[in-house]
């Protein structure tokens, strides 16, 4: 289990035109990712979801807060001692084209981490090749075909599967998939999503899924939790299907209202929410960060910051003074 | 609307200077476009391979048409053909693109072609950030555009540009003073649309207008596309991989696969009752917000590349649950039903079996759709290697027989 308390991160711009303009990527985020669980972060680009994912994968530092992995607070360890913990959290990037070394065959790509692992665990050399084949089969590839090839000889979908196989070489406890299907052809996306779901079920790997495409978050598992992140803060959090079908925060409602409706197959929601302004990152708000764009803001929203929490009315947590269910999501038109 | 009048006046004045393009300048309102038998080939070590083959497509004047396809479907090549802008090693090897007031652009060349682009056909490139010059302000690039099209009233051009930007919710003066890095993705995309429209083009091609944009920004851009289309009286073509984008903006939808048009018709008709097995499979593969997750299925196999597209027969047969022997050898027949067109042997057979009964035909189509998941499931793990033998065919020159044997799976 991985938990985070009050994680903050500010990027300071040093040189160039933007010097002195700080970007507050994370403004105190709490999260819990249970063993074998599925958690999705959604939000616009620049909301901090990728930064949070990188922090969880140990690829980025954070300014304050605490990350605890299996009960061990990371701040209690020297950086070198943290490594074994973060090694078990593997990142899968958006672009499978640049994630693989183009000068190495898939065999070489998998051989390096597996050999290291064999050395550490005292396994024989033969284990390395066996394991490579096993992993490729696990992600739905034909080892005999894939192993001798270079990345450019594989399609995008196959490459992403190779990237996932490589992540599995270290027996990870968690995969952080950052927009892992957004560059994959539409007809193949579900295959990759199904694979991640399958790895969860079969290997007990937990999956952190970072995306701006809310619908894909559903396919990682029906027990999944969804975090809606806006300007470095979690504004709504709860069960995936609860938040999609009955969101209460106006920002979540704006995101869901913006999803294209397949007219003819779907009926648009009846109460779409449209932000009153475009996103302005530089704006400093005393109250709710979304207030300036929110069609439902009141005086209180502009002066007092809402805190993420639960009330008796709704099953999910939210950070809004005026939560209300709105019918924003398109519903499928029944056949016949 | 003053904007249109100014531009029209400028155009008229300019047409006098350039006698050659005089006939061209008459196209002052939405033109119709007829693409006929269009074939575009790319030269590769394995010979000339068709990226787009035998496309017949009409863009009725004043409509928005959406072309949907996955990578390698030939949709961007089709879009470039509208400007006769296919770059070597590609070339248009057959067919015509007739645009009202311009004639067949495939036959245009040199100055005539350059003038037609921009003035009559506006093109909004994929990833607008990459089509702007990072060293010049947007305003300077606008003036360059005006000068290269011999616009005399540059002040008027700037005024039109500001109007257009204001119309799209931007501060025109500020944007013209900015370099591209000072603008967000959504703002750059709007600048791209402005540059495509400012010379008063009435045929506009948008290539992946919202890819890499956020949901909320995407919704905004799509709304702008719809509004500008209506206000200025345009004929619009939107190229995208995202069926949702087409569903939001397009009147008509055309589905491309492996360089072919497999289905086209009014957007709502195609979405509510898709007939081609590929369209059915694609719709089924899109993750949805509500409804049963279990209904969604990935299509087995993967989209063909230039080197793996079958030279004969149906291009989709490798992934098709309704595949028949005839699909291997014969071109799929064109099946017309009302305003919709489908190119599929199975659909033709279903229609032939039931001459009048629309209900029965619909039943057959549904039965076919139900067969897809069953076929999809066992193939799911083996999907990609299946047709993968041919990946290197174009580049590494593998014998074509390899892909055939590899691809052969019941």
UniProtKB/TrEMBL annotation, chain A:
Leader sequence range is none
Q: Which SMART domains match?
A: AAA
Task: Give the matching Gene3D superfamilies.
Answer: P-loop containing nucleotide triphosphate hydrolases
Q: Which residues form the ABC transporter domain?
A: 2-256
Give one GO term, molecular function aspect: ATP binding
Q: Which UniProt keywords apply?
A: ATP-binding, Nucleotide-binding, Transport
Q: Which SUPFAM superfamilies match?
A: P-loop containing nucleoside triphosphate hydrolases
Magnesium: is it a keyword of this entry? no
Its domain of life reads Bacteria
Q: What is this protein called?
A: ABC transporter ATP-binding protein
Q: Which organism is it from?
A: Streptosporangium pseudovulgare
UniProtKB/TrEMBL annotation, chain B:
Alphabetically ordered keywords of this record: ATP-binding, Cell membrane, Membrane, Nucleotide-binding, Transport
Q: Which Gene3D superfamilies match?
A: P-loop containing nucleotide triphosphate hydrolases
Where in or outside the cell is it found? Cell membrane
Composition skew (Low complexity), residue ranges: 358-379, 388-403
Q: How does it sit in the membrane?
A: Peripheral membrane protein
An example of a GO molecular function for this protein is: ATP binding
PROSITE patterns, sorted: ABC_TRANSPORTER_2 (PS50893)
Domain called ABC transporter: residue spans: 33-283
Q: Which Pfam families match?
A: ABC_tran, oligo_HPY
User: Chief location of this protein?
Assistant: membrane
Q: What family is this protein classified in? A: Belongs to the ABC transporter superfamily.
Instruction: State the name under which the record lists this protein.
Output: ABC transporter ATP-binding protein
